[in-house]
Amino acid sequence: MVHWSAEEKQLITSVWSKVNVEECGAEALARLLIVYPWTQRFFDNFGNLSSPTAIIGNPKVRAHGKKVLTSFGEAVKNLENLKATYAKLSELHCEKLHVDPENFRLLGNILIIVLAAHFNKDFTPTCQATWQKLVGVVAHALAYKYH
Amino acid sequence: MVLSANDKSNVKGVFSKISSHAEEYGAETLERMFTTYPQTKTYFPHFDLHHGSAQVKAHGKKVATALMEAANHIDDIAGALSKLSDLHAQKLRVDPVNFKLLGQCFLVVMAIHHPSALTPEVHASLDKFLCAVGNVLTSKYR
What we know:
Strand content of chain B: under 5%
Structural class of chain A: mainly alpha
GO molecular function (chain A): haptoglobin binding; heme binding; metal ion binding; organic acid binding; oxygen binding; oxygen carrier activity; peroxidase activity
Shape of chain B: globular
Distance between the termini of chain B: 20 Å
Helix content of chain B: 55-70%
Subunit structure (chain A): Heterotetramer of two alpha chains and two beta chains.
Distance between the termini of chain A: 20 Å
Order of helices and strands of chain B: HHHHHHH
Largest interface: A-B, 23 and 20 residues
Oligomer: heterodimer
Number of strands of chain A: 0
Number of helices of chain A: 8
Keywords (chain A): Heme, Iron, Metal-binding, Oxygen transport, Transport
Number of strands of chain B: 0
Protein name (chain A): Hemoglobin subunit rho
Largest sheet of chain B: none
Organism (chain A): Eudyptes sclateri (Erect-crested penguin)
């Protein structure tokens, strides 16, 4: 069980309340596909991913980015219970989607950078540390049911 | 992993933009790394790691200078950082995983201070460059 201090919970909810899930999700997924192009392997049916411009403008990337970050919002609402929250998604990513959990860590790191660009100096070192912890435990929860 | 002509140009562009802030960004990178990844502090038991520490500032400057050196000699990073590579292999022996952690914090610092410069393409190039630097610094480990 992960322990969250009062300060950490506050940093998580206050940042999250200011996040535009659709924009941030789209940007995070696009950057994942651009910065780590091998992650495109999971998205053969997304159409044109041939250049950064194509990826950023791709409507399937935007939609899927929104879906992914919306799901991340469940973590923010269920900080005390992440393994249970992500149990079904974990099974899905293992059995159906066959996604290497390393990809969850990569996306988590990208999300941090997107947040940093958005919040600038408000994204203090403590804030970054809290959010890196959060993306780490989400990645762990998503990998938990792998077998 | 190879740095393309675009990557090199992107990296050089970033570093010429930040050259006057190198010391400040180096220190901030380290501070974020120590806060976010406390295990990295184990390499600095002899340092005062409080916010504003003169030792962290000085060391941040060293790190930033080395990155600038690599960017200025981007066609031969191994040559430019050869002495540093020896130092890390023989004396410092920082576990290779930590270079990624430093790299992540450096990207965060870039995102905070120059969000519009950190386009997805530049982000990709910088990430590759930081990986290349890490690889050079650990290349003589075994």
